[in-house]
Design goal:
12% strand, alpha+beta
Length: 215
Amino acid sequence: MRQSSVLITLFFVSLSLGTQAQQQMFERMWYPVKANGTDLKFPFAGGLNAPQFSQADLNRDGLQDLVVFERVGNILLTFLNNGTPNEADYTFAPEYAIFAAMLFVATGGLLFASQKLTEPPPHPKEPDSDHSLLIRLPFIRALFIPLMLCGSFFSSAGLVIVGYSEEYGIREWSGYFIAVWSLGSGISALIIGAIKWKRSEATRFLESLFLLFLL
């Protein structure tokens, strides 16, 4: 019963993390917005209710960029410093939010692991208890490996699409490109599902994961 509870908890945690990653990868539309004849600088950045501000060099240009954590909704907003002298000049860059989140998680994890004052006393090993690694469980492997391979593919694909769109000056079209790519993926899934394969479903699933990871 205890082992089942741990597995169920891990499943819902992984599902929650995957949903949050997809939300962070959502690309906002970049249409000009005016209010009383004045162009709004960050119309799609969203409002702020309980923000926390910090600085970090996100694009490694030697300038301190702005990182905003909105506690209402747990939203991370990133702004690049344009380097204008004597002026607060920033550009909204949501694609850096996922990198900032990874940096904060890594830093916080190391700081948390270094804490020793509240560490409980060592518990003697129980001879009948199972101390094997969770990754050895078939359920954990079936959950962790597909999430890791699929996540690396879809995350990199989204970053590449946004990066190329920005490079060619058509960043506002990146959302349409992602939509077309998603539509093509859905159509290909229907076609592949209609084919009668000789190989087993498990074999084709593992082959697909490996190919997605290589791409």
